[in-house]
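Homework help thread (please don't just give me the answer)

Our assignment gives two proteins as sequence + structure token strings and asks us to describe the second one. The first is just a warm-up. Here they are:
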Amino acid sequence: MKTIKSKAKQLSVILLFAIGLVACNSKAEKKEVKNQPVATTQAIFEDTQAIVEDTQQKHEVGSQVPNELVCMVNNAYMGKPQIAVPVNGKTYYGCCEMCVGKLNNEEAARTGIDPFSNKPVDKTEAYIVLMKKEGEVAYFESEENYLNYKKTHKI
């Protein structure tokens, strides 16, 4: 129920934004326009729904996920771009200002442990895999390590 409400709220905000854009664009154009179709609320809704679906990337358990969609402090796949945190020439990602602070100040937040080799791995260089549908990720040294891990563990 919460998911439906939050998606409805997101679509409402996007719909209002789209209506505002249409209104702004119509004010900017002073010339008279005849015989052109007017965007309906339904058409705007369908367009914004397509935009939302395009921007919300979905990955399945066991798939590699892009760095920018992971909060590297919470080790969680977020499904949308996170805050980029440049540290020592590398870009880490966090979901909030607290995470940004940790990534800037704590080396441990920037390092994961490969579950196959048990070696430390820099999160920016890791092969990141979605491990659970709740969003938990793991950092592997390589795709090969992940595939070897997968042979002996249920994912």
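The one we have to describe:
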Amino acid sequence: MASIYPVILCGGSGTRLWPASRSDQPKQFLKLVGDRSSFQETVLRVRDLAGVAEIVIVTGEAMIEFVAQQTDELGAWVTILVEPEARDSGPAVAAAAAYVHAKDPAGVVLMLAADHHISEPQIFGAAALTAAKAAQSDLIVTFGVRPTVPATGFGYIRPGAALLDGSVHEVAAFVEKPDQATAERYLLEGYLWNSGNFAFKAATLLDEFAAFEPTVAAAAKASIAEMTLELGVGRLQPNAFGQAKKISLDYAVMERTSKAAVVPATFAWSDLGAWDAIWEASSRDDEGNAQVGDVDLRGTSNVLVRSTGPYIGVIGVSDIVVIAEPDAVLVCHRKDSQKVKALVDGLKAKGRAIGSRRSIATNGAEALVSTAKFCVDLQRALAGEIIDFTPSTLQLLEGTIEIEGELYAPGTILQLETSGVARVISMATLLVTTAR
């Protein structure tokens, strides 16, 4: 058996899970179901699989701290490949394949999404090993989950003829998300949910990229060839990676290759794509209620209520979702969970930053700008308050503050090289710029 290299993709922001999930706190790192994030659960599912040589995480610069912190919590060692820019899943997967191939020309990649929920890890492990074994025969194997309901939010796979020992099948067709009537027909005809997880030899996938999207293959190999690893972190070479076409793995390879195969999987699976999926995956009481945080439910049924900020009291309702963050609250019917994306798109169209990032920082300030390299917060404080600062640039817009016995008036700009505190003499407004 060839060595297995799990590759976990950590991109995307999960806009259907707003206001909890945003670009500066994406859903894969949130503890939405249980005590661990879906990213952590994904790492745990593969860490002890037989034949695993190295776990590889592909993510962006802004997510490195999340990855490092959450793998430290698990005591798991991983290699982090950092994309200089998001170019969809195709270039990301190709770069990971190029990395594995450079280390182990016979290596098998187990490519997994970081934001999926699988409640039966033992069944997943057996399916993963079956897929990895089939991948050694130059097949590109996807996990097809047996549907439990006629879901309209997933793509489907029509399985074809049995291959090898019958444990995998040809992919006869990939089909897009269906309407309700079509989904019901797919369920009866044995179609499978397309989970978006794969197993393949690194060499096989790179050959297919070279055949169908040569710029992606060339960019992936070049970005790895010019990369160095420091303390387990490797930054893909920006100029090389930027030459890759923006394209998904499905469009680049899976819908064009003759090597696509599917392993039917029986584990319970969800892509946690919207709040109704979070409710479905959560532990619920006898009335079907799922609740997290400072919440009080009376006379309710089949509701999801979650608060990371204010107390929420809910009385006499059914089948709704209430999500409260310190800066935003969402209330909707569970069946309308998919429409949250349209709400977020509307916020962005109006220029509302709250649609893509938190407007309240952890210190109570309002986040004005947040990028991969720095963030700018607007902070207000009343006379007598003490403000804690980390190394940052501070601009006093109004009021008076005292730092280490010195008084500062409006217009002052201070470069704070070390952490410290400021005492507010008169009501103050400050801009605080902090490097990430």
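TA reply:
I won't write it for you, but here's a hint about the kind of observation we're looking for: The first strand starts at residue 4 and ends at 10.
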